[in-house]
């Protein structure tokens, strides 16, 4: 969608957080958001991201500039806590992590 691309471009230029998990990072590629950035994604999207000019990481969660990406459902808690950290602060993310008994 061109509208999605316009929103993402505006978010990126304004240095506001863009977060994409699983196969969703392909939208970054489709709209040329942050080319050259390090990203991660669901493994089946990896080749498309590399062909799009992104540096690919096998890490569960990757932050590059204001673009946060994550690999998939198994990495969702770590991804969510990183969003909390970026929007609310590291202390709040630690509190939530402890309350939910996450061990990563």
Automatic annotation (TrEMBL):
GO terms for biological process: glycolate biosynthetic process; glyoxal metabolic process; response to oxidative stress. Coiled coil: none annotated. InterPro entries: Class_I_gatase-like (IPR029062), DJ-1/PfpI (IPR002818), Prot/Nucl_acid_deglycase (IPR050325). It comes from the Eukaryota. GO terms for cellular component: mitochondrion; nucleus. Residues 2-85 form the DJ-1/PfpI domain. Gene3D superfamilies: 3.40.50.880. This is DJ-1/PfpI domain-containing protein. It comes from Plectus sambesii. The lineage of its organism: Eukaryota, Metazoa, Ecdysozoa, Nematoda, Chromadorea.
């Amino acid at each position: 969608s061109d509208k999605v691309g316009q929103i993402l471009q505006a978010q990126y230029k304004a240095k506001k957080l863009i977060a994409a998990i699983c196969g969703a990072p392909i939208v970054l590629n489709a709209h040329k958001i942050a080319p050259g950035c390090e990203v991660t994604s669901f493994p089946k999207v990896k080749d498309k991201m590399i062909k799009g000019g992104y540096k690919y990481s096998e890490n569960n969660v990757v932050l590059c500039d204001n673009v946060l990406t994550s690999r998939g459902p198994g990495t969702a808690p770590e991804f969510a806590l990183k969003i909390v950290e970026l929007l609310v602060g590291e202390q709040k993310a630690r509190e939530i992590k402890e309350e939910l008994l996450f061990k990563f």
